[in-house]
């Protein structure tokens, strides 16, 4: 008898699982069911369709050679039967049947399976909000949203994005590009919470503001105002005018079907699966946004839905459902976003997450050009590398800047997967030529500084700590060791200039008893200064992590400033 | 007493070692000696100075903030004494002294050391060539070469590059950009020998030819012709007119000083060192282009000089010379080059190298757009992944194309460092968003196909093998499973069109007994076709690796062709 594989949910994970199951076992009968009318589309592309970066919504539903991935395509090419517009409303695990109900109010019917794959996805996490039903309050999840959103993106009108996460920021850019007045409202005290640490997120926020998008953090939305159409977003901190609202909150796994069938649900609220993507019922697999996975750094179960993970899990679920044997070890929470001309990414744990998980950590901020500094087009990127203090194991990398951030995130992701230490990271044989990186790649420089910190050679303190010391009037010397020209152009109020090149000669003039914090543009000269001071017997010398380039607060602008004053 | 550290050679490795030694041990007396007049310059940037991409040669000798790294800089900032224009002519290991001789014919003098670091670099490997002394036969090694080369790069005149390696190709592009007629002459039967496998190199060669650079492979240079100035390059295959010749052969380690001092020289001809960069004399370290290192895949000693490695080794040698403890595990032979608008890189072993080392391997060719195919600006890249058959361990990656090649090389380098298998590579949590990659990154797609091949599911054969079968008139069906439009535009002569979408319906028309090789644009549909054929009982179905996109031979051009006919 033919193996019957039923897959519920035909987006990334489900479509992949179905196609893979059929390839693995060509004699299996594979049926792919979806409650929507479109299958296997690139939801991640929706903001780019809204901004006209992608001209036709069909491109999001096509293969790279332009064939629409519809039911016909799945039947003809993949040998998979597709039933759209049909929701799975129940699973009878005893009889191995799925209850299905057509959207058009048709009678329910049932389908028998030998192996069932759940790929039911996720839904936006929406608390009850006053007047949520007003027209023009949209989400960015389904392909139908995309066309509606594009229609409503009218130049000159006001848009409010609720949620400053990855999709929220992509959508903010898209609507700005369409000429709208855009405000991003975020409940937490920073943009990209759960993705970046505060000082890295502040670099993104600064860039977004420079592109004329309003940002309101620590701001909870209560509801909406308007008659028929939305006109205002009501928040704890006042009203935001809005002709269009995009809700871009976090997402919740669609685990109800599984829970009602008695399958184990994890503490994360997502369907519990083993490394073979098998649920607590050996005949049922789950993959994609509906299930939990293992974090490769912590070893703990986590919920981190993403299209790239969905594809990998779908492949594993499909192989196993078809009788094969594959495993999926887990994820690193790798994420990336482009907003205007800035790229922001991370892999592994942030400092905030690592501390919350109980790690004793050391961190470094390291900004530098993304390729040989003499090569035209080199653009700055700032890295933040976090390591466990006792073992030197790298726990995570964050990267923000106009340059090639993705490359550093990917290399770090690969290294962290295998438990790389800062020392191992610093010796990676990365591809070097002037168009691609400096002879010492940004990742290697950051790892070297981290090693110096772990070994106690480099004594860095964070910009946040320096700001606090300045604000509280602490008795210390903030030493600017850059050149007089750099110092004149832009600086930190209250700093004393002693260029590194003459520091050895000027040591006599510095008070021995006081704490000295040196800084430069990126922190390398700051570190040199610390070493020079220590060699001369100064016992309390430090440098400021990341230098001026990652200083998230106001800077003193001088005569040579080439950025307009805000 | 103060520790005396003497470093010989003040380019990447030596300059790094000296600065690091001083930072590690601020009370050490560190002396850096170089026979040239310039120190710590970016020799890798020379081609970009020649092409005017980098305006001022000083940029190659400056820190990122524009300070020239000269003797004064090293003294003031690094606390290192620099002696330039001075050659080390002998080492007395008994008395721990180095014999030095000034370039200006001054008397020799000696310097005592407690720790000596050799960073004597490498020299172009030049066989005796007839009339080598003619004017305008240059190399691209020292900063002095750069200015001379730029002077001689006269539009309309003819240049001949001897050597089709990394520097040869960079220089070819630079001279072409200056308006010269450029010919690259390479002794071996492909460009980038020792860097890429032949079919990957042929993609680079095609691109270079399209940019109007002549390429002559399997062509050995005998000598030169001219009176005073060079006019012709004499090769085994005839004469090449040349008003300017650039010699860009491989390099040989400068190990004479070490050998004469009785230090152990490895089988590679470079100075033997341990993981602490220590030579056979415990007081003497070596780093950079003069020493050998360990290949992390084979575990064997290798010679692979590169600026990025020199910096890492210099740091380790400097730390250890100053009394610290650091190790350098080895390299992967990672290399990358941009020529015109194509990027070509690799890490680990090529198929050629892996087979030569005795590995039983499986390989895959996988071309695809470098980001979400619907995202504007997506550009193709072709990956070649090589794995050990018995273990699935990834041995190497090659990547060629106009898109982001460096990112895939770096991620693979990190993974290969830790012995990643194809399965582990395919599950890396790489950064995904449409501006950066498809939901399944190119590396992951390639690893998935490789897994399918290792498991015996996917039966790929190389374009080279298909070409041979065509040429020899073998009895097989070459099945083009692309769309009729794709087929009409460009194809392989002798192929039969059966689009994948109707293959299931057309099975009756295909002969069961014969070998069938399916192909498409990139090979994914080709693989689907193999699976469909197998499911229908065809026992000898295969697909062609890499599809049309990595077919290195002539293509049948059709009416829809948008590339100009050659």
Automatic annotation (TrEMBL), chains A, B:
The keyword Flavoprotein applies. Residues 472-557 form the Rhodanese domain. Keywords: FAD, Flavoprotein, Oxidoreductase, Redox-active center. It comes from the Bacteria. Its cofactor is FAD. Gene3D superfamilies: FAD/NAD(P)-binding domain, Rhodanese-like domain. InterPro entries: FAD-bd_OxRdtase (IPR050260), FAD/NAD-bd_sf (IPR036188), FAD/NAD-binding_dom (IPR023753), FAD/NAD-linked_Rdtase_dimer_sf (IPR016156), Pyr_nucl-diS_OxRdtase_dimer (IPR004099), Rhodanese-like_dom (IPR001763), Rhodanese-like_dom_sf (IPR036873). Signal peptide: none annotated. CDD domains: RHOD. GO terms for molecular function: oxidoreductase activity. Belongs to the class-III pyridine nucleotide-disulfide oxidoreductase family. This is Pyridine nucleotide-disulfide oxidoreductase.
